[in-house]
Amino acid sequence: MKRILDIIAAVAIAATSATAQDVGRTNGPEESEYGKGGNPFGSAIRQIYLNAAFGSGFFQGANLSDETGFMYGFEMEYGMDNWIGVQGGYAYLSDRDLSIYSVGTNFSYPWHPFVYNVSLNAGLYDPDIGDGSFGLTPGAGIDIVIGENVRLGLNYRHDFIFTDAVTTDMDRVYAGLKFFL
């Protein structure tokens, strides 16, 4: 029995002494084992951001006027890595009384102080009067890094809104302020 307790104690001591080192500077030649290393998790840190946006929506279609409307909304994204994230959002276009609920993905490429991004979203277009529609929205944008947790961005999205009779196009141009939580 004493031998089993000695083995368990030895394994416990060995396991507790094998913990990872703190993150710190790596000194020494390339490919060496000297130093502490700089990435504690082996991948980029997950991030959540909230984007408050405002801009305009421009409709294109045979039976639609060329008027533009004020648009405002917000998006929330969970960035799984430095380059890809899943986002959901809401936007409201004032002159059409149109609510847009969307979910999709965002691909980012940081080049300090800029971050370039492209996205593809699917959305539900819900007017106050009339039937709702489904649509797909590719988009592109550029953000300027203002601080560690804040970016200012300019984005463009082209909505393909599908109905029973016709496909309607809408261009959205908006500015947003992203806050990383």
Looking at this protein, list some descriptive labels.
181 residues; 8-stranded antiparallel β-barrel; mainly beta; Porin
Your description of this structure?
This protein has 1 helix and 8 strands. It is elongated and about 85 Å long.
Strand order of the largest sheet: 1-2-3-4-5-6-7-8
**CATH class bucket:** Mainly Beta
Give the CA-CA distance, first to last residue.
Answer: 53 Å
Backbone structural class: mainly beta
CATH fold type: Porin
Question: What's the topology here?
Answer:
Layout: H1 2-17, E1 47-60, E2 68-79, E3 84-93, E4 98-111, E5 114-127, E6 133-147, E7 150-162, E8 167-180
Antiparallel strand pairs: 1-2, 1-8, 2-3, 3-4, 4-5, 5-6, 6-7, 7-8
Q: In a few lines, what is going on in this structure?
A:
This protein has 181 residues and is mainly β. The protein contains 1 helix and 8 strands.
